[in-house]
Specification:
This protein has 294 residues and is of the alpha+beta class. The protein is built from 4 helices and 20 strands. It comes from Aphanomyces euteiches.
Length: 294
């Protein structure tokens, strides 16, 4: 018996086959299909409760997106992402079983498939995934083999940057969080991403070598805010990877420059801040002290 565990009455010991490096059985349930009569690869995911189609496939097929319905979904990567709308599609699986359905559209990032079939589809289509034989059983008895290729959502190195402690930021002011690198940087130069909230925007502060050394969080609202610990404020990623958060933008992108303009408009000049501090100090000094009641 491994470790110090006991087999209880009514139980029997289960055994796993020897795991091999690059074991094909560990690969996800990818299969060939047709999307709008074009060859594609899709992922059958029993861990997903809803089915989605990749934005890049929708754009490639020039399909119209109905943007009236949008929602946040979890389970794809470490943080939630927002769907961009819905689109009607024709999906063909196996030797000609065609499904006409409406799928939610979202940007899945750098992945090797163009759609995810969740339990909402698999259960209603009466499909069965056989992990041992690596095949999917379709209605009528047809067996569709799964592809022997690994896939990932965004396993390439991504380091998320977070607030380390609860921080109060007054209107128009900023807080700085130093960047502590944990990615192996011997590969390509990493890309830096920043996040934002409704009332705050994260921008990057660079060192002497033009490499970002800290993240500055600026309160662009009219009231003070409290930034909670572990609030995501940015990310560092290998080239070709992207954090799956619709609100993150890459440094040097056009949207990043727009955010910098918003930060500029939402802050005060140094002279204005000094004047405000002086006024507050003068007000405190001029406030008479209340005499204690006898």
């Amino acid at each position: 018996m491994p470790w110090e565990y006991d087999v209880q009455e009514g139980e029997e010991l289960g055994f796993l086959s020897d795991e091999k490096v690059g074991e094909e059985g560990n690969h996800q349930a990818l299969l060939n299909a047709k999307l709008m009569d074009r060859d594609t690869i899709i992922l059958a995911d029993t861990g997903a409760h809803m089915s989605v189609v990749h934005l890049r496939a929708v754009e490639s097929l020039n399909l119209p997106i109905d943007r009236r319905k949008s929602m946040r979904i979890n389970g794809i990567g470490p943080n939630s992402i927002r769907t961009l709308g819905t689109v009607p599609v024709k999906l063909t699986i196996g030797n000609g079983i065609a499904y006409y359905l409406e799928l939610d559209v979202c940007d899945l990032g750098n992945v090797g498939f163009n759609a995810v079939l969740g339990m909402d589809f698999l259960s209603r289509a009466h499909m069965t995934i056989d992990a041992n034989c690596r095949e999917i059983s379709l209605p009528g008895g047809e067996q569709v083999p799964l592809l022997h290729q690994p896939t990932r959502y965004h396993q390439g190195n991504i380091q998320y940057l977070e607030a380390t402690k609860q921080t109060w930021i007054a209107s128009g002011e900023s807080a700085v969080v130093p960047i502590q690198h944990s990615l192996p940087l011997e590969h390509d130069e990493p890309e830096y991403w920043v996040h934002r909230g409704v009332k705050w925007i994260a921008t990057l502060l660079s060192g002497v070598d033009e490499q970002p050394v800290a993240v500055r969080i600026t309160n662009i609202g009219s009231h003070g805010i409290s930034l909670l610990p572990r609030t995501r404020i940015g990310a560092i990623a290998e080239r070709g990877e992207r954090p799956l958060d619709a609100r993150m933008v890459r440094k040097n992108s056009n949207r990043y420059r727009v955010w910098e303009d918003e930060v500029y408009e939402g802050t005060f000049t140094s002279r204005s801040l000094k004047k405000q501090v002086a006024q507050n100090t003068e007000l405190e000094d001029s406030t008479p002290l209340k005499e204690p009641k006898e």
